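Task card 7
Instruction: Convert sequence to structure tokens.
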Amino acid sequence: MTSFVERAIERAGLGGVLPARKRGEPDDLDRVRALLTPTVDLLIVGALADAIRAEECGGLVRVHPTAAPDVQWFEREGRSELDLLRAIAVARITSARGAKIGIDWGTQGLEVPQVALGFGVTDLTGPITLKSGDLIDADDLKKVKGKGMVAKTALKRLEIAALIQNAGRSCQFTDETAPMPVVPRKIEESAHA
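Output:
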């Protein structure tokens, strides 16, 4: 966390939250909840939530084929995207140490969950679908230059893994045994990004 972000969190009155959690002495939750009003800048709340996530849960994002019972799942439920991000961040800040917090991309597409990775999310779930929302059949193939015919589900999984890796995190599909390694971008690619 940069000193600029640390100062912003301090000015919002939330500076003691992360150090207290590190010591295993959660700050007074009633006081913290009172500070987490909609008047506090969402980016400050998100930065604190993500710092807590990084400290307590690390950089692994688990991707589930179906919602796992050990995760607190968030859906939009009529809220705006910003209200959803705030709810996720507040849950991260006020939850038990190391809690799993997730979002379902099936209800709002991949864009909001991608942003939610910076607000304390540790887990994602949702159906493997086409952009139209139609489920991808396990037998659907697509011709890929240099690779031949490739399963569309495999391509979608690679897209999800890339989304997570672009957020600086590593991806583990829970129906596989090991996390996908973070593949560093080539210097030429990052210069043109």
